[in-house]
Design goal:
about 400 residues, Rossmann fold, Dna Ligase, domain 1, 3 domains, seven-stranded mixed β-sheet, four-stranded parallel β-sheet
Length: about 400
């Protein structure tokens, strides 16, 4: 049986999965998107198909997938679908009945997958599994004045996809409020924008970003699960990127693995996932913040650690055992090594500069095999611009 990844979109997350496949098999993945973004510009590791409207029109989406299937169904048995965002996964669920083939879906069924995109549903399920989550109030346009907490709190949209389509000056991906008054002011601005969905108002878990952890993983239908953990060292503080990781390093907390196993097992979850935690700086209790029904944007740290999630999913689809794993220390970065090092000092800098870890530092886009000069030039400019935008 031959299963080839069909990757949706052309962003960095999509490239990460194409690279994972190429590293494991030395072959090109198939990629479909609305256009060709920098990661796949002049790429050697994927067959890229682009069509306007692919990310927004389900008929265009399904049409292109069917065309690609017709061109490949004589030499492969199936496509393994890979979605880099919840938006693409949602589109894929909607398109399944329009496809001329039945792809391998390394994701939960549509009912659970769509439900988990609603954060309030996720928190309710975790509470039933006795997994610690932040105290959460649900604020709507008619009751937000009363749905705030007394002390420090963090506010984010229940449905981020819809929230992100509204623009207003105070907009934040996630908003930290020191008190009830700041929370009310922000919520007032949110609902004045015309947004009518729900906002989640949560107890702020004490500590800075170094108390945050990311876990990526894959779970098979028969319950075999592989995890990779990472700890945050640097994060983005810009309003619409707040909380996005800039530097992640290896870590090993057995309690996080146990909590993830309880979560995916209790949900009956199958496929790729990404779970975020924050450990209270005073009690060290880890709180589960959210679960993404996909691999995270930073999932390349799995490859750095020695786990190829795409290879695991393909082996699973082809009825083979999971590949063996040899763990390695790592640092996952978004900017240049020198830019990152300049932001560190003391113990954090020593950890980053450790000889073995520093040698295993990188980002998925920096793939030596994919060495077209035009691509490298474009990515270099992209990295430099990221540093400038961050003020580095």
């Amino acid at each position: 049986m031959v299963v080839v990844p069909l990757i949706l979109g052309t962003d960095e997350n999509s490239y990460t999965q194409a690279r994972a496949y190429h590293e494991a098999y030395g072959r090109q993945a198939v990629v479909c998107g609305a256009g060709i973004l920098a990661p796949f510009y002049h790429t050697k590791i994927a067959q890229v198909h682009a069509r306007a409207g692919f990310s927004s029109d389900v008929d265009v989406f399904a049409g292109l997938l069917n065309e690609v299937w017709a061109s490949r169904n004589s030499d492969i048995d199936n496509f393994l679908m890979i979605a880099p965002t919840e938006e693409y996964l949602h589109m894929l669920y909607r398109a399944l009945d329009l496809l001329d083939f039945s792809p391998v879906m390394p994701y939960p069924d549509a009912e659970l997958g769509v439900a988990l995109m609603d954060k309030s549903y996720f928190y309710a399920r975790m509470k039933k599994l006795n997994i610690a989550v932040p105290q959460t109030l649900i604020a709507g346009p008619d009751n937000f004045s009363s749905q705030v907490l007394a002390g420090e709190q963090f506010i984010k949209a229940d449905d981020y996809e819809t929230f992100n389509s509204f623009d207003f000056p105070e907009k934040h991906k996630g908003f930290y409020a020191q008190n009830a008054d700041e929370a009310r002011d922000y919520l007032s601005a949110v609902f004045a924008s015309g947004f009518t969905g729900n906002m989640l108002v949560q107890t702020f878990i004490s500590g800075d970003n170094t108390q945050e952890f990311s876990v990526n993983g894959y779970r098979s239908a028969d319950g075999r699960t592989v995890f990779v953990q990472a700890r945050s060292v640097l994060t983005d503080t810009r309003p619409m990127w707040v909380g996005n990781h800039l530097l992640l390093t290896d870590t090993d907390r057995p309690d996080l693995q146990d909590l993830c196993q309880r979560a995916v097992g209790g949900l009956g979850y199958i496929g790729f996932f990404n779970i975020d935690f924050k450990a209270d700086v005073n009690s060290d209790v880890p709180y589960m913040l959210e679960m993404n029904t996909r691999l995270g944007r930073s999932s390349y740290y799995g490859l750095l650690n020695g786990v190829n999630f795409v290879e695991h999913a393909i082996n699973d689809a082809e009825g083979k055992e999971f590949p063996e794993v040899v763990r390695r220390p790592f640092s996952w970065i978004t900017a240049l090594r020198s830019q990152v090092a300049n932001q560190l000092s003391g113990v954090a800098l020593e950890y980053f500069m450790d000889t073995v870890r520093y040698a295993n530092t990188g980002n998925a886009l920096d793939y030596g095999f994919d060495d077209d000069p035009v691509r490298i030039q474009r990515l270099t400019k992209l990295r430099e611009s990221i540093g400038r935008n961050l003020g580095w």
